[in-house]
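QA checklist item 7 of 12: single-chain prediction sanity check.
[x] sequence parsed
[x] length recorded as 525
[x] structure emitted
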Amino acid sequence: MTDLPLHEGASRRPRLRAFRSASLRFSLAYGVLFALSSILFMSFIWWGTIGFLERQVETAINADARALVERWMVGGVPTLALTIEDRLEQNLDDDAIYMVIDPEGNYLAGNVSSWPVKVQYTDRWYSLPDTRAGLRGLAEIHAYRLPGTEMTHTAGQLDSGYRLLVGRDMRARTILRRLLTDSLVWAWIMVTLLAVSGAMLVHRIFRRMVKTVARTTSAIAHGDLNRRMPLVGNGDEMDQVAEAINEMLDRIVRLMDGVREVSNSIAHDLRTPITRARTQLEDAALHARDADELRAAIERAVGNLDNITAVFEALLRIAQIETGARRSAFATFDLRPVLFDVAELYEAVAEDHGIRLELDMDEVLPFYGDRSLIQQAVANLLDNAIKFSPEHSTVRLGAHIAAPVAGRVIPSAGGAMLVLEIRDEGIGMTDADMERATERFFRAEKARNTPGSGLGLAMVRAIVQLHGGEIRLARHDPGLSVRLLLPVTSSALAEYGYDPFDEDMPDMTRTSQFSHQHDTNSGVV
């Protein structure tokens, strides 16, 4: 009893599944649209051609009738009859139809024996059967009232007077119309077959592309992160889609690797301070002799926990910056006072380490961005430079407006570029370390013994990327040079009346405001 329903359901499901295919629906829509378009186009050709033939016949009949009426006006029945006989003799196609009758309906001239019963009006065309040489066909006929006769009724009805009948046999045009119809029908059949073939080709191409995407994404969903879309190599739209998908997958893999590395780094770097805080609290709970020792242990543990909190706050801040949430705080301002404030803040730190802090900036540094984020980025770089510089060395902070450099940061149209550089004379980095210096929690081997979380340069990179710029690290014997290339909008330059490329503005051009000599205090903060 259940075999039949199961069989019907099994046969129905593949059919329904086939119609759910997007590629099949797309190809069917393409084929139907192509076939309908061809039908409309060929119907337009058919109606236009047939209508032209009919209008041509009607025009010829009217012209012939006007000429015959003129002959009637000149000589009456004899002249009209003679003209009709001449035209019948000259009618090589044998398709002309003429007839003239008097008011009583008697035949006067022409090649028709009797007036057709259906022809009763002069304001309409008639298609009547016609037999010539044993062949049946259709004739297009029109009746005319000859001048000098009277009509007893309206609406062009013929009741009395001399009447003229002019027509054409439509056999040849009927054959032509049939040939045209057959030709268009066969052409439509061929176009339909081409539409079906094109739909099948489109279906295969679309299905192949979608299946390739589906296989790639399915493989990645099952853990094969190395699977990529194949490229044909001809640079068409499919290759562009494949390249975009591959780039997206590469980005996803990099993000996953970054998340994995960050997770590992968090677990590794935070385990030590957490363990240290726990050990200190446990030791104080077991061995503290008085309240002062217990309070000191708690304060040390709180300090370690504060460091952990600072790390998480830095991670959250980097994530917030990378999402672009801080763009709402962008504004136009002069960066020079901001840099002076940061340098003044780190003056005491540099003096405690016996380090000179020198500045070299333009008189005006117009910029469009987030003031506090740029201030934090410069503070992080100065902190690292001072931290890793030896005693009696020099840390230099420079900031200048420059023309955009080809192949580097491309500012907005009409803009320029802010070059902000911090250079120290410290331990420096190797080339391998500089490639990974901006990664989260990365610390070079030379810096393992110094305090820090490895998030400073990562935050600087996030801030610079938020402003559409680049960060570049280079070795400086001795030491390290960190250069920030930040685009400056044309609106920011215009607001401060700044044109770095105008030779007529010497007071606004790049000048070294501070000396690098140790005996000059103007360049030392």
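[x] summary fact logged: The domain at 228-325 is CATH 1.10.287.130 (Helix Hairpins).
[ ] second reviewer sign-off
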